User: Which sequence fits this backbone?
């Protein structure tokens, strides 16, 4: 059975994005043929279908290109990690223990040492970095792997957002100095920001996690956060400056120019397919999937409209159009199926998220034109057949700009200020979104919010980015000068963004 004949998707979307966001999301993912749920007895696993995997491949290509331009090399490490390797990490962190899946037998034999299925690869990559780094001439060293990891969480499955196995990339680097490692950390965060803004048409907030919520063992965890339409925040990618703690635990040392042994500074950074979940959730609507042209498997679908007497002329015109666009590097699909009428085809390609539909009927043939329809808002534009390749590029760019603008408008409207605990609770309770408030830096104050409304501090802006920072002289927001923590009233040291999360 071919993808387009899948009976599932004939039904259309029945759930409402606004009123049943979770059910709607699950329906879009399945009916747009992005993913299926795993076999019975394997809850938490999904099968990524070709249309879903194509999104991941485009994201991967963009990010991988940026990595390679900035000194990263790809490598691949085993998916199993000996227990003794994970134990070494316990010098610095509690670890992932409850979420780790273990292999204890192979065939009929019990293993001498059980093997963890990697929940992340610090504990197997760092011992090799230790072997490979001898002198300052070996630094910096940057390895990345594209792989899957497994975290056996017993939570409800949500394709791309919450699955026991998920695809990601994890980068691991070692450097001579703190300054270089910190520069690496922010370079990767910039690249994650670029994935969202330049590929997924989503603005993000960037900053640090509070100290009590950083990656175990890290000195600093930085994050990009994306707002979902239900008012919850998604952690879109994290980049960690690990200080020297991992290097000390795994003996990553180097001889400096004076032949003195020094401890390296390390980083790690990861972005998972949760970014696809955020993409689908952000742009799609009650008609189905909406995709930016940057990642769409088909950027353009051509739907010919014919009667018996015009069929040949229309199909000739449409085929030539498809060939021209294909030659110009546009990902184009000509839907010339006899068995379906144009209305059915419109609905189907809307469900599947094709950014622009080109309609070609006898009028277009006679006038030397093409009718273009934008997926996000149905805007219809007449294009001249002459020079259509250029014009189509313009329409695709316009669709991207529309999606970005809509997401940006939503985000801007969902950041609200609060000066008291009651106001934080009330604002998140009523509107969702982000609430920005002065914060003393104590975990206790976050706990007082978390206990009542399951919202937490998702992000603290970097001081230089923070217009509301109490010490920021350049701030034109007088209300935040000399601000006190909204929860406890002690002097604030940072601005905190509270939100509910995925
Ligand atoms: Zn406080």
Assistant:
């Amino acid at each position: 059975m071919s993808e387009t004949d899948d009976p599932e998707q004939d039904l259309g979307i029945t759930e409402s994005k606004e009123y049943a966001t979770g059910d709607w999301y699950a329906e879009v993912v399945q009916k747009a043929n992005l993913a299926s749920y795993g076999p019975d007895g394997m809850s938490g696993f999904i099968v990524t279908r070709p249309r879903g995997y194509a999104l991941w491949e485009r994201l991967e290509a963009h990010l991988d290109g940026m990595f390679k331009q900035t000194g990263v090399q790809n490598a691949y490490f085993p998916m199993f990690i000996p227990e003794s390797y994970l134990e070494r990490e316990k010098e610095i962190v509690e670890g992932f223990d409850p979420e780790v899946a273990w292999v204890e037998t192979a065939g009929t034999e019990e293993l001498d040492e059980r093997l963890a299925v990697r929940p992340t690869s610090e504990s197997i990559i760092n011992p090799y970095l230790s072997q490979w780094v001898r002198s300052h001439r070996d630094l910096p060293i940057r390895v990345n792997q594209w792989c899957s990891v497994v975290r056996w969480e017993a939570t409800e499955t949500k394709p791309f957002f919450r699955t026991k196995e998920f695809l990601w990339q994890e980068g691991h680097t070692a450097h001579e100095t703190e300054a270089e490692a910190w520069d690496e950390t922010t370079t990767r965060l910039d690249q994650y920001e670029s994935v969202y803004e330049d590929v997924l048409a989503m603005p993000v907030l960037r900053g640090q996690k509070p100290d009590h919520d950083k990656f175990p063992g890290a000195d600093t965890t930085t994050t990009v956060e994306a707002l979902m339409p239900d008012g919850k925040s998604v952690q879109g990618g994290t980049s960690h400056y690990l200080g020297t703690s991992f290097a000390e635990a795994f003996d990553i040392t180097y001889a400096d120019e004076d032949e003195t042994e020094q401890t390296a500074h390390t980083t790690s950074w990861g972005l998972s397919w949760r970014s696809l979940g955020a993409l689908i959730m952000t742009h799609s609507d009650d008609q189905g999937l909406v995709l930016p042209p940057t990642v769409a498997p088909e950027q353009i679908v051509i739907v010919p409209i014919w009667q018996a007497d015009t069929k040949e002329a229309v199909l000739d015109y449409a085929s030539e159009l498809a060939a021209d666009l294909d030659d110009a590097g546009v990902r184009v699909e000509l839907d010339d199926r006899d068995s379906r009428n144009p209305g059915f085809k419109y609905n189907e390609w809307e469900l599947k998220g094709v950014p622009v539909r080109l309609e070609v009927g006898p009028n277009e043939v006679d006038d030397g034109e093409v009718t273009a329809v934008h997926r996000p808002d149905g805007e219809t534009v007449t294009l001249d057949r002459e020079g259509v390749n250029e014009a189509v590029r313009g329409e695709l760019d316009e669709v991207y700009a529309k999606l970005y603008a809509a997401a940006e408008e939503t985000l801007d409207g969902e950041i609200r200020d609060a000066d008291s605990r009651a106001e934080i609770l009330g604002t998140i309770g009523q509107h969702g979104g982000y609430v920005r408030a002065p914060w003393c830096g104590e975990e206790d104050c976050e706990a007082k919010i978390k206990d009542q409304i399951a919202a937490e501090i998702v992000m603290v802006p970097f001081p230089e980015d923070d217009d509301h920072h109490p010490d920021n002289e350049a701030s034109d927001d007088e209300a935040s000068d000399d601000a006190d923590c909204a929860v406890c009233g002690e002097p604030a040291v940072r601005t905190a963004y509270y939100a509910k999360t995925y």
In short: Confidence is low (pLDDT under 50) at residues 475-480. The longest strand covers residues 232-243.
